[in-house]
Amino acid sequence: GSYYAFCSILVEGDLQTEKLGAVLQRIIRRHEILRTNFQTLPGMRIPLQVITDNAKHLISEYEFRGLGLAEQVTKLQLLCREKSRQTFDLERGSLFDISLVTLDAKKYLLLICLPALCADRSTLESLVQEIIHDYAAWLYRQELSDESQPLQYADLAEWQNELFEGEEAKLGREYWRQRKDIMAFANCQLNFANPTTLKSDFKPELFNLCFPAKKVFELAAIANEHDVSISVLLQTCWHILLWRLTKNADMTIGTYCDGRNYEEIESALGLFSKFLPVHCHLEDEFKFSEVLKQIGEIIDETFKWQDSFAWDQIGEFSKKIPETSFFDICFEFEEQSDFHSATDISFAIDKQYVCFDRFKVKLSCVRNSSGLLTELHYDSSLFQVGVIERLAEQFHILLESVISKPEAAIGQLEILSDRDRDQLLIEFNQTQTEYPPNKCIHALFETQANNNPNQIAVVFENQQLTYAELNIRANQLAHYLQKLGVGPEVLVGLYVERSLELIVGLLGILKAGGAYLPLDPTLPQESVAFRLQDAQVAVLLSQQQLIELLPESKTRWVCLDSQWNAIAQESGANLSREVEAENLAYVLFTSGSTGKPKGVAVEHRQLLSYTNAITEKLELSVCKSFATVSTVAADLGNTVIFPALCQGGCLHVISPERVSNPEALADYFSRHAIDCLKIVPSHLAALLTASKPEKILPQRRLILGGEVCSWNLIERIQSYAPNCLIFNHYGPTEATVGVLTYPISAIPPLTPFQQGETVPIGRPIANTQIYLLDTYLQPVPMGVPGEVYIGGAGLARGYFNRPELTQERFIPNPFNHSKFKVQSSKLYRTGDLARYLPDGNIEFLGR
Fold first, then answer.
1. How many other CB atoms are found less than 10 A from the CB of residue 297?
2. What residues does 256 pair with on adjacent strands?
3. N or C: which end of the chain has fewer CB within 10 A?
4. DSSP 120
5. What is the C-alpha separation between 829 and 163, in angstroms, rounded?
6. In terms of DSSP H, where are the helices of 167-212?
7. Considering just the CA atoms, what is the radius of gyration of the chain in Å?
8. Per-residue model confidence as pLDDT tens digits over 267-278
9. 3-state SS class at 729
């Protein structure tokens, strides 16, 4: 039922239906292919063409006169669908279905339908021409001679088989054997296709849009200027659009060829058509005119060898050719005349549809006097209609862009509608949220210390400090540091093991007005030395056992354990405000996995913005206890450290020994109820090997970040802790901890968008903008991979003492909009690839 040839012919005038029936019967007698069956005899694998001698075909008649226009249209649509979807009995039944619908006294619709084994598009056109010719001859009382019999399909098939055996065919087979690009058709993976196999049912559907005649003339003029046909221009645009949507630089599209390469068979009936592989290589900077010429030449070359192309012939040379072969993406073009006249009777092809080979998506362009009908045929088992509608719209926008700038680079041609562009740039970034006036992060902690002095603030193993105790110790350290010259924009190293001293040191530096540079004690000495020198650290906070590991340097160090008696002599009162929200809060060095490590400079206002946004987004106010299990030298742990200390929660600093030991950590969490945990997925997966993995998981909030997360891990987590809310969190250090969050409510079914592999990274948090852009800094369409660019309140100051690198990665923001209350003059270029899912969430794709 999927492979058939169908057309409807509008007939207007004083039609004599009996004579039309006689004309049709005569045409059937003339052409064997119209009275053919296909039978498989015992012991044979391939069917034979069996020709019936005197088949008489009945014409089904339908009377629609007297019906209102709306009812006529509805009934015609149902009838055409019924006729086009019928299943033929190829072995025994009639394979030529003819219907005549009477619409009024002088208006008829002739419906013709055959299986694709018997007809292609050229067959239908020749058949219509023959009906018109014979009916006109009858009107003029001309004798129709049977002496001039047409070439029959069986004879033509034999002739074609002989061509495959000739010398020219050998040259043709050699040509196709050298075409290494043929298999590139399999590379074209359109976004949002349902996961399936070749064995799935083929269910073709159609969506069409009209392109105005005036603009078609403009396209034709461009084609004429470059000495190509409008068909070549349209196919070039199809190639460009698919390249833009799939990011495949090398692509092969199946291009329609009617297979009538010889004058003798131009009007022959039967299936001769095929799709030929047309390959091209595209890059952003290629000019449209260059690509137009390239594809025109490739099509000319390909069509020279059309007779030699057959999948079974190609299969001899390539093991990559699957047993069931077809081109995923196809293109066809047709020039359609409006009507033909037979004296006072006019015949016009109203609709035409032919499907003789499988495809995933096929663009069919039909040009007539009213414009260009662009039909997108698609396998509905693979694509949702909304995806195809968007594809059709993008093709039309691309055509208009070619008209307006035919000499542009293909990467600069427009494919987005204004509506889609607004959705991607504005609607998805409507995150503006009002928070209290900017304060420094330690000021929020001081408020909690004043309101909840006796509440436990931080715990490490069997040690703990209340908010009052932690505030006093941090104040004493801050006063001490100020005497050493620490103040706004002064960087202080924090080289401390995970302990209470770590949190005291962090807060003390901030209260002194300085900014902290955390250094992981597990780093090699040369890495520590590099960071201290690169950041020009004047003061370093550490512990006695670590001081001995430090390389020689001019950095002045303060030992938080052995020197604490001296520090404790300082005042425990809060310091006067000398630091502003625009001052530096911390510098974090990236790992340097893609080059030399570089320090990222984050200000108080960015840290405050993140803390407010993530607390609200994840509803962390319901959490009373938080656990930090990652190094403070990365900002992963900031998701729990600052929300805990700024809202009166209890922060558990987990020792390195427990962090790497599933049983020890499970033991700790069983004794200390933890509401919120932030952790890297691979770290958590390793910890879940504990004998009681449910003990590892928090009671209220689990936040995963730092790397991609699989649905398999989520399934394990939910089986152990069904009541714990899970969030996937994404963000580079340069945008302050995280910018995207995805709440995970349940394991999704297998869909075109989440195929059981990785969890989306979600939507932007408050006062953050996310853009997925191409190489020209233009937004990519939904579902298309683009580089992640970040703007908004969380964007870091830049790289510490690296102005050139800052300028390279923090670029001017071209998308600031009046609707955004929090403007961002810069965008951070992450180097990460992602795509939008249809629901507006973002899926991470890699670097």
1. 13
2. 275
3. C
4. -
5. 58
6. 167-178
7. 36
8. 899 999 999 999
9. strand
